Amino acid sequence: MSTQRNHQDSDDAANERPWRRRPAVDSPNPPPRPDWLTQVREPSLAPDQKIVDAHHHLWDRRGFRYLLEEFTDDIGDSGHRVTASIYIQCRTMYRASGPQAYRSVGEVEFVRGLSAQSRSGHYGPTDVATAIVGYADLLMGASVAPVLESLMEAGGGRFRGVRMPVAAHPDPTVRSNPVPAPEGLMVSKPFVEGARHLSRPRSVVGYMGLPNPARRGSNLGPPPARTDHRSRPCWRASGRRILSQSS
User: Fold this and answer.
1) Mean pLDDT over all residues of the chain?
2) Where is the sequence biased in composition, kind Basic and acidic residues (predicted)?
3) 144 in Cβ contact with 198 (< 8 Å)
4) Whole-prediction pTM value?
5) E strands within 151-219?
6) What's the burial of 204, exposed, middle or buried (CB within 10 Å: 0-12/13-18/19+)?
């Protein structure tokens, strides 16, 4: 498959235009290597099987662009029949001003626009971002309710929930996110209160579970929980307990 393209020329041009600001990449994961990814092309085993890509990102960061054209090119090159996709938050296109709690609404607005582009058919048959998972700070407790309403409005019927980093580890080298969560986040009173403001069709999605949520998961109330980025050593001891309480 193709991958995120190198936009050095556009980056150089952006440097000459100070109003065009792309945030630097801040990720614990290295960027993809097109030279390695394109070495082998494998045929699809079931090219007629309908597939929903259940987890992908879109962004325009300095030297690290992956937007609608790149994503749909990857789908077209894959040989798979990807009919729809679900966008998962990645701290992209937050509003540059306004109340801090509402800046993440910009990400949902941005993705909804790209979703509308995909429905034109100009980028292939995939319904990109048929569902959108955004971000809200559940540590706001009850005060998060109007932020969730703004996210729903921005999604135009496609907003489905929030993803918030919850993984914590005493070793600072063990992380899955540029902004690690504080220890005990999921059992804190503000988080639990904020999570209770989520209800279907919204959902809470965390990066990685650790033992505390396994013991206290029932405190979160009605929202269904979804976990991702589970392939971590910590799961060897606590993953089964956490999964037994996850929907």
Assistant:
1) 79
2) 1-18
3) no
4) 0.79
5) 159-163, 204-206
6) buried
CA dist 32 and 71 (Å) reads: 14
Residue 14 has pLDDT above 50, yes or no: no
Instruction: Please list the residues that pair with 161 across neighbouring strands.
Output: 133
* 88 touches 163 (CB < 8 A): yes
Provide the b/e sequence for 109-142 (b: ≥16 CB within 10 Å): bbbbebbebbeeeebbebbbbbbbbbbbbbbbbe
What is the distance of C-alpha 34 from the center of its chain? 22
pLDDT tens profile 189-230? 999 899 888 865 455 555 444 445 444 444 666 555 555 655
Q: Are 108 and 148 in contact (CB under 8 A)?
A: no
Read off the tokens for 101.
Answer: 């709690």
In the block, which residue shows the tokens 């109003």? 19
In DSSP terms, 59 is beta-bridged to 66
Give the tokens for residue 78: 């894959």
